[in-house]
Design a protein that fits this description.
Elements (H helix, E strand, L loop, with lengths): L1 E10 L2 E7 L3 E6 L6 H13 L19 E9 L2 E9 L6 E4 L2 E3 L11 E4 L5 H4 L2 H15 L3 H28 L9 H41 L5 E6 L11 H14 L1 H7 L10 E6 L2 E2 L6 H22 L4 E5 L7 H11 L4 E6 L12 E6 L2 E5 L1
Parallel strand pairs: 3-13, 3-14, 8-12, 12-13
Antiparallel strand pairs: 1-2, 1-4, 4-5, 5-6, 6-7, 9-10, 10-11, 14-15
Length: 379
């Protein structure tokens, strides 16, 4: 799988752009602030319907424009598919596949798969649990696009349940701690919805973590050249020891946990149990990586998570496009070289760097100069 052509209209700093690409390695070279990351961000957006840099779509549209257009020609098994997205802040995106509109933008998911390495990846190790939850969920959707619907359903149910908890909790306080609501069955209905959708998402995450464990351990050893043990443990808000991926069992456990926490949830106006409260514990040796791993070890761990994602997606069929966004400048010489050697054989590798010297020799290939919002394709 590779991207053969990228077209942009009013995306970030680009009023218009046409960029031909090919399989193999392409390095996008230019000083910081010239638009290199905007290009790989656009490709990542086609794959995930999200940005690795911002949480909403507004910054993706060029100042003064109403919407942005991103088109990518994706080649898989010698057949090209044109994917087009219209990004309009505050409204649902519109999508086309081979010029034909599709009902929902998420129907393009799976047509292009990417694994993106970026400086922001350090937050996978050092950041909040939300970063690790997003890592798991993005990988789930890349492997099984239908889970995007499950993820959206869960977020919708969570929002509705939180609103009801807040309203009911306020009424409870006004009554001096009396009954929370005149119709407790309303909250019970949303408990059931949250348990059902939450169990689907939780089961998928647990299965994914089981698959990732050996791949992350192997990738960390390759990047860090270290024999130190790395482990992944899913930490559920249901309680310790949640390992079964049986949906009925997980739904029942979620219902029990919500019943036990009902009073506290009403007091706080928040759902205190569910996949949105979970974490992925990363350990290095006997200690958690967060707070104990050195800067170099943290980088190795983050890279291992991305390399494991690449290996898993490749094993599923359809090798993803590898994107390395300004990563090499963050690494020491040894890690830089080892990472380059590990990814050099991928079907398509897109690298951004400020200067040629930041790109290891193992990743020699095509070059695109990026300056002042203009691109110039060279050899």
């Amino acid at each position: 799988m590779y991207v053969a052509h990228l077209s942009l209209s009013d995306f970030r700093s680009y009023p218009e752009l046409e960029l031909p690409l090919d399989a193999g390695v392409t390095a996008l070279i230019g000083p910081n602030g010239q638009g290199k990351t905007n290009l790989v961000e656009a490709i990542g957006y086609v794959a995930t319907l999200g940005s690795h840099r911002v949480a909403n779509d507004a910054p993706l549209v060029r100042f003064g424009a109403q919407h942005a257009i991103v088109r990518a020609s994706v080649v898989r098994d010698a057949r090209a598919t044109l994917v087009e997205l219209e990004v309009t802040p505050g409204r649902a995106n519109r999508a086309r596949i081979n010029r034909s509109p599709v009902p929902r933008a998420r129907e393009v998911l799976g047509l292009l798969r990417t694994v993106l390495f970026a400086p922001e990846d350090l937050a996978l190790v050092k950041g909040d649990p939300s970063e690790r939850r997003r890592f798991l969920d993005d990988l789930l959707v890349a492997r099984t696009p239908r889970l995007a619907g499950v993820r959206a359903d869960y977020d919708r149910v969570l929002k509705q349940r939180n609103a009801l908890l807040k309203t009911a909790g306020s009424a409870m306080r006004q009554r001096g701690g009396g009954p929370a609501t005149s119709d407790p069955s309303t909250l019970d209905v949303w408990d059931t919805h949250l348990a059902t959708t939450g169990a689907q998402l939780l089961a998928a995450r647990l299965e994914l973590v089981d698959l990732l464990r050996p791949l992350v351990a192997r990738a960390y050893a390759a990047v860090a050249r270290s024999g130190e043990e790395v482990r992944l443990e899913y930490v559920s808000s249901i309680g310790p020891g949640v390992q079964s991926s049986d949906r009925e069992h997980l739904a029942a456990a979620l219902m029990t946990a919500m019943a036990d926490l009902r009073r506290r949830e009403l007091e706080r106006g928040l759902s205190l149990v569910g996949p949105h409260r979970d974490d992925l514990l990363l350990t290095l040796g006997p200690m958690p990586a967060k707070g104990y791993a050195s800067h170099g070890e943290s980088w190795s761990y983050a890279l291992a998570l991305r390399l494991a994602s690449y290996d898993l997606l490749t094993a599923d069929g359809g090798e993803p496009v590898l994107i390395l966004d300004d990563v090499f400048a963050e690494l020491d010489v040894d890690r830089r070289q080892r990472l380059a050697e590990l990814v050099a054989g991928a079907e398509q590798v897109l690298v951004t760097a400020a200067v040629d010297q930041d790109v290891p020799a193992a990743l020699s290939g095509a070059r695109v100069d990026v300056r002042d919002g203009q691109v110039h394709v060279g050899n």
